[in-house]
């Protein structure tokens, strides 16, 4: 898909200026010593390959041995458990589907923290609840290791081409060390603040994205019913205060833009089921912090209902189709 | 307030290119013959003044005689009723608070249509239900006159400085004639399609605007609760897929931007009560066309509840304050 | 369908006690003089038949002549226009699909008010916007006639068996006169207050009904997912504070109750499209009175979305099916 | 407050008939051997007292020693930790504020499971996430103990008078044993199914209750605005399909009923903040099971917003006041 995050180079400079401290720790940053990688799924696999391409020796593991074959052929060393990886590498990246997997991989019986070396840098790129990130950070700290959350934006395409965006939370003085590795896999690495703020930034962005997308779909549908030409309406919105990413970059109405999922039967892109998952995280986070999020909450319900009605695999901009009169499809 | 609509000059050229037909009718466009103006409220008054500034003799009326004094001193001729105005001018602009007023001024006992001349051009700049615009157009057509809807974007400031945006619906061959007058009062005049589409465009934009604003307020509030710096979060959103006008141009969180109502205790700007009115129009329109607008509908309810809780007079970005924990204010 | 309204006889006595005034006007209530009936659709037809059964001579009309045949065979006199009916009968009942029809039938070129006799009683049983009822009442008053709104609860079955419920708004001193006729067609006639309150009561009830139904559907679905037996859950709710008409009388989950649409593939009952229409009226009414109705508004959107997704003809309890996981159906 | 759950005796018989198996285990049910009680807050304190009243020797602990004084004076033995209690009693009841407390009390360093005896019966009356109940049950089973969830309905008053309702989840063959103790503290004990279904039943009921309450408040407010008398409207709803517990037993409009919080400035009753907590559990549970709950979700957001706007301590029926026009209060 087209990356959901687009950073301009100019702006990037400012982000980088956040980081002025110098990294001094036992990990040698200059030499390309081995890097651990745990979780070789659709995203983890191409990410690990990019580390290899950049010359890093990779030591990897996955709960499904077959996921490791491709990487092994590229020279990666495959071990049995996260603990084994932690025993051999002092920089480890994890890329897992959900919070329980992260908890298991870090704190389980064969988890990283069983054998982690003092001073190790542990970077979790999974998208999970920020409170779990904080728990992992506390547990890592007890073992003398550093944990950072660094969820990604961008799909398999961006993972393959090394164009992911990483939103990073954790101790600011460790950011440079994390950046060295993350730059191999992404084109933008943003420092967000303390542990958990990487997750927070991603969750917040995706919640607002969902709201904007459903809002755009409703608005375009209403305008069309009222006799407006869809392309003209999109132009008016995009020059006005209704403008948003979903209206000007990823318009959900077929025929308005090219190169977006709405131009391709809502195939590809960012699946409704993934959006529902992220909105679930936003909802849980909002509930736990007692924050009212009325539109975010309704957006979650709409995407959840869409999953129940057969839209799980379509791009999340298919909400336009979901809301339209059936005869009109 | 800063205009809610911002048009770039470059883009404008394309809008203008929509209009290639030549205007041929009995109305003399070259000469500056008198123009009727009905409705001299906060908006109508400065609009009519701008017509005078551009050299047009103005014949006006208002239900409140005192509203006419200022214009009279500038040389406008004040008559008693809309019918009287229609008897003297073949180009008339109306600027009224709501649908019932428009119906009365056009079709009432002393309404425009009682004495309208054949071939007259009637331009209504009120923000009303598009179905009422269509009714008025039909009624005008029966009398041999042309009706166009041309609601504005931009507040009293833009009306005074002649920088309004007009969204125009009606017969395309009449657009040039309308433009001649509207250009005196606005910096952007956009042709939207058949009668009612001017209203439709405005209603659609403001509905998406409201959704984006509440969404931004929720998202910023959630992010802050999760430990993100508000300015940093706004930057991240604005570089990402969560970006919208409310996040990058009119951020509702105090301290994030300057020169917006959130930097000034939510004074000025676009009042919550006005937004609630526009969302009410959107809701009625959606109901009547059987169009599902779940987020637009909830946005309407939230602004309506805010009006009930003391926010009626504050800028609509005060929804951020409404959703925050009271202690935190 | 099972009547949506169920009145107990005991309670009914109290309603009737609202009416203690004696009816004195030119209309002879004792004699069974002719009654006008306008609108012979699915509901109007059986209603008019019940008037005939009770010995009233009926003078009727309908925009579709074929709708009148059956009634004509039963002895009703069929005329061409509402004005003709008003010229012959001083008690008239109207049963029409929506507000514009009511406006036309009363105030149109061949409308009732063109030839209405002074002192006539005009009873409108259509379900429309209360503000239109008020307009009609004002127009009738100018002609010396009395208008009352008396929308019904109960479907075609109740209309046929004479078991409708009427909610009546209008001058209290006319209620007895209205009751005489309405009792022929319904088993419950409730006086609600001034003109428009009959509509208000119906709209309010159906809005709360929709909220309760969707809420019950969500709750049952959630409970089932959490491992509760549906019948047991219904019992627990019905003995507790979650109890409502939709949970204890019209449960939307197949298998929980017998004799309700959920036991019959959601056939029969009260169609989703009719509920969406009533919720649209509630929404318009709330918008026009600036009343926040967040759940009513969302319920409207959900039923509107269901209409767009193929549920228009199913009973409104099919929202349970709409919200369920597709595979589970 | 009036108990939110009201069970009729007649119906109760049927519940009891669910339980036909005979309890055979090492715990002596006939003799009144000591019972452990952990968590002596506002609810736990009067509950433990009722056990003492019924002749059970109680062994208790609480994280706040001062909470134990009153019970100690009544003869209870106070120990330091949950583990100590488990070491001495083979029937234990826990009553704690939230999931993390339950996890700590059961599985913490000094938790029950550290010293629990084989065959012990552990009953948790806290209101928590059903998934946590399941986790605790699994952990208890590993130690040879039985865990049941038994959240209560009814407030401090019902706890004091021994009139609570318990919704019980767990192995059916253990229900009789649980009942023996719960009957000392409550007037209704309902078996709901496997572990977690007690929580599920409570969460479901309270979600539907919240939806019904907000719906009733909206509907009453709308009806009043439309000119209906509140008492009359309540009567109409209660005889019709809009009927629900909030309209007929706990009406939120001042003046409609006596003896409810709306008659007493919304003091007492079930606090908005507690309802928001239960709706948060419902939301988390729905999110985790991927169940769409649009109205439940919006109800959560409304109660959450009310907490942010100063309604945290008022009864949850104060949503009527929250939605009304301020001037009208």
Secondary structure layout:
The structure is a homotetramer of 329-residue chains.
Chain A: H1 9-16, E1 35-38, H2 44-53, E2 58-61, H3 69-73, E3 77-78, H4 82-88, E4 91-94, H5 99-107, H6 112-115, E5 121-124, H7 130-142, E6 146-149, E7 152-153, H8 156-161, E8 164-169, H9 175-182, E9 186-193, H10 197-225, H11 230-238, H12 245-248, H13 272-288, H14 294-308, H15 319-323
Parallel strand pairs in A: 1-2, 1-4, 2-3, 4-5, 5-6, 8-9
Antiparallel strand pairs in A: 7-8
Helix pairs in contact in A: 5-7, 10-13, 10-14, 13-14
GO molecular function (chains A, B, C, D): 3-hydroxyisobutyrate dehydrogenase activity; NAD binding; NADP binding
Catalytic activity (chains A, B, C, D): 3-hydroxy-2-methylpropanoate + NAD(+) = 2-methyl-3-oxopropanoate + NADH + H(+)
Enzyme class (chains A, B, C, D): oxidoreductase
């Amino acid at each position: 898909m087209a990356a959901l995050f687009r950073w301009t180079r100019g702006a990037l400079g400012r982000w980088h200026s956040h980081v002025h401290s110098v990294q001094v720790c036992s990990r040698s940053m200059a030499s390309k010593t081995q890097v651990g990688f745990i979780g070789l799924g659709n995203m983890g696999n191409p990410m690990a390959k990019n580390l290899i391409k950049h010359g890093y020796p990779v030591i990897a593991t996955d709960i499904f041995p077959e996921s490791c074959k491709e990487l092994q052929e590229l020279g990666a060393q495959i071990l049995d458990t996260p603990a084994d990886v932690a025993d051999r590498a002092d920089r480890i990246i994890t890329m897992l589907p959900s919070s329980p997997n992260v908890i298991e991989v870090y704190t389980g019986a064969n988890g990283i923290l069983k054998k982690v070396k003092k001073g190790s840098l542990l970077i979790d790129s999974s998208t999970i609840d920020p409170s779990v990130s904080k728990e992992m950070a506390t547990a890592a700290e007890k073992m003398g290791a550093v944990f950072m959350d660094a969820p990604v934006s961008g799909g398999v395409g961006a993972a393959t081409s090394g164009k992911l965006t990483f939103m990073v939370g954790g101790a600011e003085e460790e950011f440079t060390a994390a950046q060295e590795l993350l730059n191999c896999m992404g084109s933008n690495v943003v420092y967000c603040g303390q542990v958990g703020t990487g997750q927070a930034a991603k969750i917040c962005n995706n919640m607002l994205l969902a709201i904007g997308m459903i809002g755009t779909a409703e608005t375009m549908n209403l305008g069309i019913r009222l006799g407006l030409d869809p392309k003209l309406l999109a132009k008016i919105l995009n020059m006005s205060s209704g403008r948003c990413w979903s209206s000007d970059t990823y318009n959900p109405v077929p025929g308005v833009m090219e190169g977006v999922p709405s131009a391709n039967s809502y195939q590809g892109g960012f699946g409704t089921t993934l959006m529902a998952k992220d909105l679930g995280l936003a909802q849980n986070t909002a509930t736990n912090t007692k924050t009212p999020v009325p539109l975010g909450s309704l957006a979650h319900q709409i995407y959840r209902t869409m999953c129940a009605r057969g839209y799980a695999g379509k791009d999340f901009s298919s909400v336009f189709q979901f809301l339209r009169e059936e005869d009109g499809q």
